[in-house]
TrEMBL record:
The chain crosses the membrane at residues 215-234, 293-316, 328-351, 357-378, 451-470. Keywords: ATP-binding, Membrane, Nucleotide-binding, Transmembrane, Transmembrane helix, Transport. Pfam families: ABC2_membrane, ABC2_membrane_7, ABC_tran. Belongs to the ABC transporter superfamily. ABCG family. Eye pigment precursor importer (TC 3.A.1.204) subfamily. It is a multi-pass membrane protein. This is ATP-binding cassette sub-family G member 5. The lineage of its organism: Eukaryota, Metazoa, Chordata, Craniata, Vertebrata. Residues 2-50 form the ABC transporter domain.
Length: 477
């Protein structure tokens, strides 16, 4: 940053089309700086001054000339440079119609064109004049033929000149050397994986902190959903005839079924832009794509935990679920996992599928399938075909629902209005009946279900690393 005079904007947002940031020249210097991170000895820049005003373009070219003086080879394609830059370049090559018309030092170029009968008038830009002399005008067949012959004559004169033969001689002499010194294209030294991950995490967190509206939405979307649920349920009742069982199961269903969607929406909204940046920077060899994946996952964890705590604190106590602090903490810990899995699974699939809308649809369908097979709400797991019973063990919804059913219904006593009872409603008097009938053995599997539920996170993390390593290879090829 010091080498490219960017220290004064170190803490500024780069910006883009949506909101302003640093200037166009500074943005171009940032692009060059990214390429200099690995200290390359050969730098090729394609029209680095295009779209910049003349003063900024001049600053960029002078900067590149300074880089060339620091043991680097800088090759630049450029259009309409200022005349002041004529002597900045060590060598100038003019090409036309795929042919090398001239290549030599600036002073040699002036002498060569003068000898060919094409003088550069005083106060004129040599670049513009000589490019005009060597360009082919295609506005009419006569002009095209005339200008093509002129270009061909200049090319022939160059190929017969001392400048051209001197260059060929140096090439032949270089090729005949037995021990040619190798030019290191890039520095082999690189920070450790943990150091790269630290930088990526710091950058991701910093960008996130600047997007205050995004942070607010991430923290509040679950809470807003909780408001809808609380509005419809209002307050849980212990009277079975008033929906005590149905309302509780409905809240559990909504908590497990909806939380993956909020995580998925976050990933679809935020991660594709980061993925595009990581594709470019990993191609430059700065880091691997899986390191960006890990940095993103680590940075969402605190916000996800906070968002679910806010959601659970509001919903749990507002609707009047089992009034026990330990059970509340268990409820929060269980609901957290589907939320993180929703975002984690989306990011994993975005590693191998380019279209975020396709990933959005895929994750939604997987979540619906998991709810149908694993929750036991639509149909009791014991009544399902055996193949679906086995598949239910692969869904996080199975363990989440069992845990929340036990957390809410264990030890809960129900009452029943005997004056206007629902048919069969008064048969349920204790919460353990719900557990025994719908989820036999769930109480004894409580700790095991917790461990199995949280095991989905490292498994998906590992799959994500594999997914982005595959993406690394696909993009390179």
């Amino acid at each position: 940053m010091a080498e490219l005079s960017l220290s004064h904007v170190a803490h500024s947002v780069i910006g883009g089309r949506v909101f302003p940031g640093i200037s166009g020249g500074e943005r171009r210097r940032v692009s060059i700086a990214c390429q200099l991170l690995q200290d390359p000895r050969v730098i090729l820049l394609d029209e680095p001054t295009t779209g910049l005003d003349s003063m900024t373009a001049n600053q960029i070219v002078v900067l590149l000339a300074q880089l060339a003086q620091r043991n680097r080879i800088v090759i630049v394609t450029i259009h309409q440079p200022r005349s002041e830059l004529f002597k900045v370049f060590s060598r100038i090559a003019i090409m036309s119609r795929g042919e090398l018309v001239f290549c030599g030092q600036p002073e040699e170029m002036v002498d060569f064109f003068s000898q060919c009968g094409y003088e550069c008038p005083e106060y004129c830009n040599p670049f513009d004049i000589y490019v005009d002399f060597t360009s082919v005008d295609t506005r009419s067949s006569e002009r095209e033929a005339a200008t093509f012959n002129r270009m061909h004559e200049i090319t022939s004169s160059y190929q017969g000149s001392a400048i051209y033969h001197s260059m060929l001689g140096k090439i032949v002499q270089s090729l005949q050397q037995e021990d040619k010194p190798a030019i290191p294209f890039k520095s082999k030294e690189s920070p450790s994986g943990s150091a790269k991950l630290e930088v990526l995490l710091r950058r991701t967190v910093r960008n996130l902190s600047r997007d205050r509206m995004g942070v607010l939405m991430r923290l509040s979307q679950n809470l807003i959903y909780g408001l809808f649920v609380a509005f419809f349920v209002m307050r849980l009742d212990n009277d079975v005839s008033k929906g005590a069982v149905q309302d509780r199961i409905g809240i559990i269903y909504q908590s497990i079924g909806a939380s993956p969607y909020t995580g998925m929406l976050n990933a679809v909204a935020l991660f594709p832009a980061l993925r595009a940046i990581s594709d470019q920077e990993s191609q430059d060899g700065l880091y691997s794509k899986w390191q960006m994946f890990l940095a993103y996952i680590f940075h969402i964890l605190p916000l996800s935990i906070l968002a679910i705590i806010v959601f659970s604190s509001f919903l749990y106590w507002t609707v009047g679920m089992h009034p026990d602090t330990i059970r509340f903490l268990c409820f929060t810990a269980v609901v957290l996992v589907p939320h993180i899995i929703g975002e984690l699974l989306t990011v994993v699939l975005l590693g191998v599928v380019q279209d975020p809308y396709m990933v959005n649809t895929g994750v939604a369908l997987l979540n619906i399938a998991g709810i149908l097979v694993g929750s036991g709400f639509l149909r009791s797991t014991q009544q399902m075909p055996e193949v679906f019973q086995w598949l239910s063990y692969l869904t996080f919804q199975k363990y989440s629902c069992e845990l929340l059913i036990v957390t809410e219904f264990h030890g809960l006593e129900f009452t029943c209005n005997t004056t206007k009872p629902l048919p069969g409603a008064c048969l349920i008097t204790h919460g353990n009946q719900i557990i025994d009938e719908g989820y036999p053995g769930a109480l004894s599997r409580y700790t095991q279900d917790f461990l199995l539920l949280y095991s989905f996170l490292p498994v998906l993390l590992l799959l994500g690393m594999i997914s982005f390593k595959i993406r690394d290879k696909l993009v390179r090829h």
